[in-house]
Amino acid sequence: MKEPIVKLCGNRSLSDLAKTSSSHASHLGFIFVRRTKRYVRPESVGRWVKKIRPKQKLVGVFIDPTIEEIEETLQFVPLDVIQLHGNETVSQLLRIKEAVGLPVWKVIHHQSGGIDQMDVFRGVADGYIVDSKVDGAAGGTGVRFDWEAIPSYRDEAYNQGVPCFVAGGINPENIKELLTYRPDGIDLSSGIEIGERKDIGKIQTILKEVEQNVASIS
């Protein structure tokens, strides 16, 4: 079994980035959505990245963005991946990919018809994040969905040749259980925080479980 891709999302300070970038995670995420509590200004992230120079790939999270909004962010932050968390359409994904030339991941909220939603983006999305559906919230709720559904999402993504991340309510207490479902990727935010700040202890605990799980299966 290959090691799951681990994304540490919701970095909102230089201190957060210092902690997450010191880990063995593969991706670091930033929320560029103004109405969310983890929103960060692209100018700020640009300064942090120049100072720390993280080795991980950088992911920018947007909700129903304009191409201009993404391009403006890219002037400050050297993003590697665009993650779309809203009601974006296939044509919007195609336009964004053509405009910025970067991979685009699409968030799918777990619900009846979630697999069908993935099929809509077949051949267009470069990866998926399956998150909990919580009324009035786009993500970052710390609420988990029914993980029994993970294999179905993972298999659909596999058939499309792209990775499938699991998000929502993952923390040091349940990471072992999550890993039994063998997700391609793990997307963490509130589960690696104490007092809304990233916690190096929680990050290390989760990544250690990931590494040990891979070693035990290999």
From TrEMBL:
GO terms for molecular function: phosphoribosylanthranilate isomerase activity. Its EC number is 5.3.1.24. One of its GO terms (biological process) is L-tryptophan biosynthetic process. The keyword Lipid biosynthesis does not apply. It is an enzyme of class 5 (isomerase). It catalyses: N-(5-phospho-beta-D-ribosyl)anthranilate = 1-(2-carboxyphenylamino)-1-deoxy-D-ribulose 5-phosphate. Pathway: Amino-acid biosynthesis; L-tryptophan biosynthesis; L-tryptophan from chorismate: step 3/5. The keyword Amino-acid biosynthesis applies. Residues 7-208 form the N-(5'phosphoribosyl) anthranilate isomerase (PRAI) domain. Keywords: Amino-acid biosynthesis, Aromatic amino acid biosynthesis, Isomerase, Tryptophan biosynthesis. SUPFAM superfamilies: Ribulose-phoshate binding barrel. Belongs to the TrpF family. This is N-(5'-phosphoribosyl)anthranilate isomerase. It comes from Halobacillus karajensis. The lineage of its organism: Bacteria, Bacillati, Bacillota, Bacilli, Bacillales.
